[in-house]
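Priority: medium. Attachment 1 of 2:
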């Protein structure tokens, strides 16, 4: 047997290719404005910090399924925030949703004979997850483009990273119908569902999409952006109770459990809405400053109706735009990170402090 390092089946880690533009942006006399990675910068709400600290002395192993309180809090939050009906028993906490996405095809039993469909422009971990399972990957937004080929797993991501595009009820319903006709599972990454500006995103579990039946559907919810919990690693998956319990079984064996203090923090984050509303308004205000500045600098902003990014182009290669921005001390992400079709775009994150967003806007309009 010859060992094949898993890393050799994975793409190069894309962020490493930004070293030069990052160095250029850093040399700006007023410092870099880093709008590349969508990482939260605002403090974790006190109510969440206190919940974490309140159980810091607990020594025992946490359960993989999560506490009853956490599962109930997640189900109630989905009902309150998005009018969704899920049973607490169909909620499974994950160690940040990147972890789930990277392992989902494998955990669901997909392999070399299976096809994973991901959006044309997609969060890179969908492809990574398919490759870790040894499955084939195809980028397709319209599923009729797949022809007779049958998929095992279909990802949707509305609002999208990187484009901020929102898929309407009709589109989402068609994806579900298409998948059901072929026995495929739909994984809906709903990371940005609570961060919408000019459109009304809808969950795959919404009755208008699912017809009230969650069979074959998984909704993936991250707390990283809406509750500023990226550092805690906190998310959950819900939907089809049979699929969720299948995932639970495997994750129990694999030790994929969320630390107990994080479960307590998640419970608080899902029980209280004020911090989440305040965070959404912070991002809305930042977008209101940055969007006009980006446009006035000659960019065309595509989609970007929701979520934490502006998907923008100057009608040239995104890498050239990146260099242009870096001369102004601004770092963005190149569109090609997200798929070949993104070659002429860049992604600008709204995740910087008010002061840094104002600095970026000033540099773009001067
Ligand atoms: C579309 C999408 N899904 C999932 C994630 C992963 O989030 P986390 O692992 O922090 O839950 C991100 C993070 O940026 C994302 O943009």
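Attachment 2 of 2:
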């Amino acid at each position: 047997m010859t060992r094949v390092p898993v890393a050799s089946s994975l793409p190069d880690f894309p962020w490493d290719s930004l070293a030069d533009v990052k160095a250029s942006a850093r040399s700006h006399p007023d410092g870099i404005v880093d709008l590349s990675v969508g990482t939260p910068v605002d403090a974790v709400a006190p109510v969440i910090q206190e919940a974490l600290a309140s159980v810091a002395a607990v020594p025992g192993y946490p359960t993989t399924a999560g506490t009853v309180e956490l599962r109930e809090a997640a189900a109630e939050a989905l009902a309150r925030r998005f009018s969704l009906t899920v049973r607490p028993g169909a909620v499974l906490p994950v160690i940040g949703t990147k972890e789930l996405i990277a392992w989902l095809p494998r955990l669901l039993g997909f392999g070399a004979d299976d096809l994973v469909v991901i959006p044309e422009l997609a969060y890179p971990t969908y492809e990574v997850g398919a490759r870790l399972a040894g499955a084939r990957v195809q980028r397709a937004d319209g599923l009729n483009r797949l022809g007779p080929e049958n998929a095992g797993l279909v990802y949707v991501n509305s609002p999208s990273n990187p484009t901020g595009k929102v898929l309407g009820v009709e589109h989402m319903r068609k994806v579900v119908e298409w998948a059901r006709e072929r026995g495929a599972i739909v994984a809906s990454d709903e990371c940005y569902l609570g961060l919408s500006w000019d459109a009304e995103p809808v969950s795959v579990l919404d009755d208008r999409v699912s017809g009230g039946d969650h069979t074959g559907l998984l909704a993936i919810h991250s707390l990283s952006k809406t509750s500023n919990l990226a550092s805690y690693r906190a998310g959950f998956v819900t939907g089809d109770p049979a699929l969720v319990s299948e995932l639970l079984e495997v994750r129990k064996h694999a030790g994929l459990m969320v630390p107990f203090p994080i479960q307590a923090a998640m419970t608080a984050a899902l029980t209280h809405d004020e911090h989440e509303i305040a965070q959404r308004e912070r991002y809305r205000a930042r977008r209101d400053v940055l969007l006009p500045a980006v446009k006035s600098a000659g960019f065309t902003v595509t989609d970007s109706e929701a979520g934490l990014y502006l998907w923008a182009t100057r009608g040239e290669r995104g890498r050239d735009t990146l260099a242009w921005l870096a001369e102004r001390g601004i770092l963005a992400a190149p569109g090609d990170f997200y798929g070949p079709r993104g070659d002429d775009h860049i992604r600008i994150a709204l995740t910087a402090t008010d002061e840094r967003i104002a600095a970026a806007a000033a540099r773009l309009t001067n």
